[in-house]
Amino acid sequence: MKGRRRSAAGPKIGLTLIGLYFLVPLVSTGAFSLWEGGNRYGFRAYLALIHQAELWQSLGLSLRLALETILVGLVILVPAVFWVNLRVPRLRPVFDFVSVLPFVVPPIALVAGLTALYRGPSWFVGTANYLVVPYVILALPYTYRALEVGMRALDLRTLTEAAESVGAGWLTIMFRVIVPNLSTALIGAALLTIAIVMGEFTFANILLFNTFAVYINYVGQTATTEAAALTLLSFLITWLAMLGVLLTGRGQAQIGGAR
Amino acid sequence: MAYLDLERVAKSYGQVRVLSEISLALEEGEFVSLLGPSGCGKTTLLRIVAGFEDPDQGTVRLAGTEITGAPPAKRQMGMVFQAYSLFPNMTAEENIRFGLKVRRVAAGAQKERAQELLGLVGLTQHRAKYPHQLSGGQQQRVALARALAIRPALLLLDEPLSALDAKVRVQLREEIRHIQRETGVTTIFVTHDQEEALSISDRVVVMHQGMVSQVGTPAAIYGEPANIFVARFVGAVAELPAEVVDGADGIVELFGRKVRAARARGMAAGARIHFLLRPETVQVGPAGTDGGLDGVVVGRTFFGALTSLRIQLAEGRGSVTAAMPSGETSRLPQGSRVSVSWAEDAPRILPQE
């Protein structure tokens, strides 16, 4: 009995320690963001932040980039993952491998490669739109995985053949049969992409675009309490995205009646 | 000319030959089953007709027009699959209307046709339900309605009942046959279940190792198997080794005894044969009955109305199975000595290879 009780306490202590490891810095950051010097605490840092036009500009830019990244990523990946699963499942390991490459290649190497490789019209290379290219690559592991799981849950071959047999073409199959049944996977992929793009610093900083993360860094170097406030705000955005993933993922056990 | 004409259709996957030059003709309105064990090529043949697979050689003609190589979407064939294949994001009615929508049929006509088919498969009150709200049997009915909605030139059923439980399976197969008669649509039904094939088909095509073993009416397939594979695969059969003694009179030697067998007439004396007995043709009487073969009951299986007795003959050199009304078997416990007989025209005779 004694041993069992001790073993039940073990995980709790472990979890508490891990919880503290995450919570203490957050709480400290929160407390610091409210500090107004001396013994005074209040929302001055937050108020100062929301009156800065650069904040809204950088936030707007990052959100726009996130949307573009989602769009480009899905347009490329939905047909690709569909095709691999339906027609060449033996290539799946290759896709799995490629999809995790962004984890292995350091962003700094990616930037160097990118600037050497991509030379295009100035509306593309000269503007923040250029960031969509590396962001699609960064989001690849998450987008690919979400789509792959979503498609495996469907009996793609039977659904496709059933649609074909009653006369549907490929576009109809894609947009009326496959995509509507992937809504959970698509939302998951989109929210994960938002979380990544909102927090990405290396590319934007090196390529000199003033995204949200770059702005946080800049504020951190100039106004410390405001940087703490901003950090918490950016966490909040990421958490909301994650919460969205969790909530939409809940119903996934029974997407329609495919079983 | 036949309605559907398959000519010397062959297909291999790598080194494996799945279909060897199959030729087959279906008349319009016919219900034909492709029956065989798994791996015999029946599903591949159906998929070639549907256009999901291309044959390596041979042609497929539908109503006189060659369709070999035409994409499935252009073939006007309704198909029901083994796996549940309804589109999960659409209601029963939307599933049925899908093929019509793709064909840009007017919305009013779509609705009308969907109502008609929902009525035909008996699911009118379930029209607004999604597939996951329907039972397996209901899903397959909707799938059948979806396949029929486009007024297909050919209805292809790929083991549509195999995922269902026994009672629903029997009920639905009767309904399929009824609906097929009502609509008159030419139908190919793939199954590995001989009872299913025999009970609903106009003709049965028995397939084995990528070849057609026999084509015929269910009665012919069961009663006059063309070869030992068909005899073994369709229905239960006892196989006894025998030899023709007198071809003119139809007399064979079975376990050292001379027995009359009408179907041995015309065979050469000395030919080694399979002497085949269906369980329902075997009569069991008290041991020592004149003209019977003596044996011992070594096994009993109760099936409700019928009980099947396994009877060992001639000191274990062969055995037969007799299917009898259960009430008559109470006096025949395991171990009883009995005598086995049959009508002269009951045994089927096939030459040994």
Describe this entry's structure for a reader.
With 259 residues, chain A is mostly helical. Chain A starts with a helix and ends in a 10-residue tail after the last helix. Chain A has helices at residues 2-34, 44-50, 53-86, 92-104, 107-117, 122-125, 132-152, 156-165, 170-178, 183-199, 202-206, 212-222, 224-249. Chain A is globular. Chain B has 353 residues and is of the alpha+beta class. In chain B, strands 6-7-8-3-9-10 form a six-stranded mixed beta sheet, sandwiched between helices. In chain B, strands 13-12-11-14-20 form a five-stranded antiparallel beta sheet, with no helix packed on it. Chain B has helices at 42-50, 92-102, 107-120, 136-149, 166-183, 194-200, 218-223, 228-233; strands at residues 4-13, 16-26, 31-35, 57-62, 65-66, 77-80, 154-158, 187-191, 203-208, 211-216, 238-246, 251-254, 257-260, 272-277, 283-286, 293-302, 306-313, 318-325, 337-341, 348-351. Chain B has eight helices and 20 strands. The chains are: A mainly alpha (259), B alpha+beta (353). Chains A and B meet through helix 8 and helix 9 of A and strand 6, helix 2 and helix 4 of B.
Please name the defining characteristics of this protein.
heterodimer; A: 259 residues; mainly alpha; MetI-like fold; 78% helix; 0% strand; globular; B: 353 residues; alpha+beta; 6-stranded mixed β-sheet; 5-stranded antiparallel β-sheet; 8 helices; 20 strands; 24% helix
Task: Write a short abstract of this structure.
Helix content of chain A is 78%, strand content 0%. By secondary structure, chain A is mainly α. The relative contact order of chain A is 0.13.
Write the layout of secondary structure elements.
The complex is a heterodimer of chains A (259) and B (353).
Chain A: H1 2-34, H2 44-50, H3 53-86, H4 92-104, H5 107-117, H6 122-125, H7 132-152, H8 156-165, H9 170-178, H10 183-199, H11 202-206, H12 212-222, H13 224-249
Chain B: E1 4-13, E2 16-26, E3 31-35, H1 42-50, E4 57-62, E5 65-66, E6 77-80, H2 92-102, H3 107-120, H4 136-149, E7 154-158, H5 166-183, E8 187-191, H6 194-200, E9 203-208, E10 211-216, H7 218-223, H8 228-233, E11 238-246, E12 251-254, E13 257-260, E14 272-277, E15 283-286, E16 293-302, E17 306-313, E18 318-325, E19 337-341, E20 348-351
Parallel strand pairs in B: 3-8, 3-9, 6-7, 7-8
Antiparallel strand pairs in B: 1-2, 1-4, 4-5, 9-10, 11-12, 11-14, 12-13, 14-20, 15-19, 16-17, 16-19, 17-18
Helix pairs in contact in B: 2-3, 2-4, 3-4
